[in-house]
Amino acid sequence: MTTVEADASLSQQGHYAGAVTRLAAFVVDQAVSATSFAAGTAVVAWVLALVSSDRVDIHLGAAGVGLLYAVWAFAYLAYPWAVSGKTPGMALMGIRVVRADGDDAGGRRAAVRAITLPLGFLTFGLGFAPIVLGRRRRALHDVLAGTVVVYAWDARAAHWRFLARRNEGGAAGAG
Amino acid sequence: MDAEGRQPDGPGDRSDDRSGEAGGDRSRAEPVARTEATGRSPTPTGGEGGEPDRWGVDVALGAASVAARAASEVAGAVGGSRAGRAAGAAARWVTRPLAREGEQVRERIGEEAGPAARDVLRQVTPGVVEAVGIDDVLAAIDVDAILDRVDVNRLVSRIDVNAIVGQVDVNAIVQRVDVDALVRKVDVNAIVGQVDLDALLAKIDLDALLDRLDLDAVLARIDLDALMARVDVDALVSRTEIGALVARSTTGVASEALDAVRRQGVSLDNVITRVVNRALRRDPAALPAGPPRLVARPALPAGPDPSPTGGGPAT
Would you state the pLDDT for residue B107? Predict the structure, then answer.
C-alpha cells in the first residue's frame, strides 16, 4: 500500500448541494409524483368501477383533483424527508434534507418544508434564487423549515467503483 | 708485579696474586708500595691486562685487609700504653695514604657496582635459565591448589567497581567504537534463527497482555483521519483484490449510469458555484462547505479525476 499526501479535492459528501442536482431531483420527484398520482387515481377509479359495476360516478372537478394532488404531493415529499431525508428523486441524485446543523430533519421540519415549498413558485422563483446565490444554498422553504440540502452520495465510493470496473474490464480484455 | 718491575698483564698474573692467603698478603702489598712510591692511584689507566680496574680494587682491598689485621695485632700487643697510643698514631699517619686510596676505591665500587652487577647478571642469567627447567618448575606448581586458596569473593568485594567505572570515560570509548562496522559484523539472521519464537510466544500470556493494554487510549492517540488521508485508496482498489470485490458487488449498468448521472450533476453544480463566486467576488475557501456536524472531519482524498471527459468532479 502506498501513501499519498492529502489531496485538495475532497469528497463533497455532506457539502451543500448545488442547484443543478437539486433541480434534477425535483424534476424526477415531480415526474414520479405526478405519474404515481395519475396511476393511483386511475387504479382507484378502476377498482371502484369494478367493485360498484359502474354505479359509482365520482366527479371531483379541477379544484378537487388539485387539492387531492396537493395532499398527495405533501405526503410524497414530507414522509420521505421525515423518514430518510430524501425523496426518490433526491435518492436518485444523491442528496438529502437535513437540519441546518446536520442532524436528521425530523417530521415537523419535513412537514413545514413540504408546506412552504410552493412559496418559491408563488414568489416567481425568487424563493429558489438563494440556492444559486446563497452561501448555504438554502431556498426560502429551507430557511422557513430550518433545513438544508446536502450531498448524500459518496462520490468517493463511486470513484472507487469506477476504478474497480475499469480494472475488471482491463483484466477481462487481457484474459 | 714481578721482580723486574713489570705489572701483571693477564688474568694469570692476577690469579697468582690472589692465590694463597700468605702469599696474597705479600703480593697485594706490592702494588700498595708501588703506589706509595709513585704517588699514583693503584688503578692503572691503561694497563696491559684485560681488567685493570678489578686488579686495582683487589690491591686496595688486600692492602686494607693487611692494614686492619696488622693494626689489630699491634693494638692487641701494645694495649692502651702510651707507647701503644703513639704507635697507633704513627700507624694512622703511615696508613693515611692507604686510607685515601681505600676511600677512592670504595667510591669507585659504589659507582661501578651497579653496571658490574648488571653485567654479571646478564652473563649469568642465560645459564641459570638454561639450567633451570621452566616447565619442570611450572609442572611442580599446583595451580588448582593456589586458586583454591584464593578467596575470589573476598577479592572481588574489595574491588570498588563503581570507582573503576567512574573513572572510565564511556563517551570516549563509545566514540571510538565503529558501531556501523560492529553492526555489519552481526549476523542478525543467525541470531533470530536461534530464537525459538514458538517457545517465546508460548510464554506470553496474550490475554493478560491485552487486559493490560488500554486500547481506547491507544486508539485515542491515533489520528485516524490523518492516517487514512495518507492512504492511497485508489492504488489500493486498483492493485488489490479489494477492487475486484468492489466491482463484483456493484457491477451493473444501473449503478454505473447512476454514478455517471450524479457525477455530471455535481460537476455542473461546481461550475455554477465557481461562476457565482467569481461574479460575487467571494472567496470559496471562506464559504461554509456544509453543516458543522457533517463537515467537521476532513473528507478523504478522492484521487485523480477518472471521468472520461476529465471535467468530472472529484467528489
Answer: 85
Name the CA radius of gyration of chain A, rounded: 21
Q: Give the residue ranges of DSSP H helices in A53-136.
A: 61-83, 88-93, 106-116, 119-122, 129-133
- β-bridge partners, A149: A97
Q: Is residue A7 part of a domain?
A: no
User: Do B251 and A168 touch, CB atoms closer than 8 A?
Assistant: yes
- A11 lies in a domain? no
Residues contacting residue B52 through CB under 8 Å, at least 6 positions apart = B43, B44, B45, B46
CA distance A19 to A132: 6
Query: pLDDT at position B211, please?
Result: 81
Q: Which of B224, B241, B294, B307 to mutate to test the interface with A (most CBs of A within 10 A)?
A: B294
Is residue A144 included in any domain, yes or no?
Answer: yes
Please tell me the total count of domains within chain A: 1
| Cα A12 from Cα A155, distance rounded (Å) | 7
If you measure CA to CA, which chain B residue comes closest to A4?
A: B230
**Contact criterion met (CB below 8 Å) for A92 and B258:** yes
B28: helix, strand or coil: helix
Asked whether the beta carbons of B105 and B114 are under 8 A apart, the reply is no
Which residue in A10, A19, A100 is closest to B301 by CB distance?
A10
Mind listing the pLDDT tens digit for each residue in B195-216? 888 888 888 888 888 888 788 8
Find the farthest-apart pair of alpha carbons in chain A and give their distance in angstroms, rounded: 75
Determine whether the interchain pair B302/A155 forms a contact, defined as Cβ–Cβ distance below 8 Å: yes
Other CB atoms within a 10 A radius of the CB of residue B150 amount to 9
CB-closest option in A20, A160, A161 to B268: A20
B-chain CB neighbours of A19 within 8 Å are 269, 272
Distances (CA, A) of B70 to A129, A172, B81, B86: 152, 136, 17, 15
pLDDT tens string A33-91: 999 999 998 898 888 888 887 676 777 788 888 899 999 999 999 999 999 999 999 99
Rounded to two decimals, what is the model's pTM? Answer: 0.46
- Interface predicted TM-score of the whole assembly (ipTM), two decimals: 0.80
Q: Does residue B229 carry a pLDDT above 80?
A: no
CB contact under 8 A, B263 and A135: no
Strand partners, B231: A3
